[in-house]
Amino acid sequence: MEQLNGSFVWGQIRRRNPDSHKGTYGTVLAVAGSARYRGAASLTVEGALRTGAGIVTLASVEPVVAAVAARLPECCFLPCAAGPEGGVSAEALEQLLPAAEKSRVLLLGPGLGNTGDTKALVENLLPAAGGAVVLDADGLNGAAALLAEGKELPRPAGGLILTPHPGEMSRLTGQPVRELEADREQTALSWARRWNCVLVLKGSRTIVAAPDGRAWINTTGNPGLSRGGSGDVLAGMIAGLSACGLPPAEAAACGVWLHGAAADETARKRGQYGMLPHDLFDSLGQLFAAAGR
């Protein structure tokens, strides 16, 4: 298993072509947020924008759209009907299906809420996606519900990236956390092969495993990331890098390293107690600038 490092990351993320345009760097459709978790949507779409995606569209309920529009004028929006628990309703599938087919990356899950509507979105949008899919947070909970029913996860045309923390991984597999954590490398590799996906097993020294047997272990990051919202930023970053053209495994590996490196720089400036997930973006920009990206 290889250790992630800056040489690998900057070898994957190339300088932008002077003749490029927004279409060069792809489209992300982020289905995220609910009345209760508005910040999750904001963090995840900013993560995609700050890692270079050409166009990022947030599909969400009106209170989330209003909140994010006030912060991020660069984001596009697809307002959706709300379900009874304040998240995106399954009734919005009529709007979402054609948008998912056309997007280079579908990001599904942050802040949606663990509901029947979310499960229906996962079940119907994954097979319809025209590109890669990043499944995070409540998207993973929806996937876990499908797996518990004996259904298989569809593999989207552009590949599937799952980003579970240990608790989510336990729900996906039905295994206790202590068993999964006893051999994190083997856990990530075996389930990546079984589900035919790229698996980002989060935690201290996050592991990225590909279905072809490649795997990386991360050495960046610190306990200052141990707060709500950090994972939303990471999911957006992986989606943004994927939209720029990186293959799923490389997008996940680079996103994980950059997320941790930005956190290390942020901790030096604000301390692990004082740093917040949205502080990562300034540090992320400094990393890109230092590398000439």
TrEMBL record:
Enzyme Commission (EC) number: 4.2.1.136
Keywords: ATP-binding, Lyase, NAD, NADP, Nucleotide-binding
UniProt cross-references to InterPro entries, sorted A to Z: Carbohydrate_kinase_pred_CS (IPR017953), CARKD (IPR000631), Ribokinase-like (IPR029056)
Binding of AMP, residues: K202, G203, S204, R205, T206, G231
Cofactor or coenzyme needed: Mg(2+)
Keyword field contains Nucleotide-binding: yes
Residues that bind (6S)-NADPHX: A40, G111, H165, D232
Listed PROSITE patterns: YJEF_C_2, YJEF_C_3
Summary of subunit composition and partner proteins: Homotetramer.
PANTHER family: ATP-DEPENDENT (S)-NAD(P)H-HYDRATE DEHYDRATASE, ATP-DEPENDENT (S)-NAD(P)H-HYDRATE DEHYDRATASE FAMILY MEMBER
Free-text function comment from the UniProt entry: Catalyzes the dehydration of the S-form of NAD(P)HX at the expense of ADP, which is converted to AMP. Together with NAD(P)HX epimerase, which catalyzes the epimerization of the S- and R-forms, the enzyme allows the repair of both epimers of NAD(P)HX, a damaged form of NAD(P)H that is a result of enzymatic or heat-dependent hydration.
Name of this chain's protein: ADP-dependent (S)-NAD(P)H-hydrate dehydratase
Primary gene name: nnrD
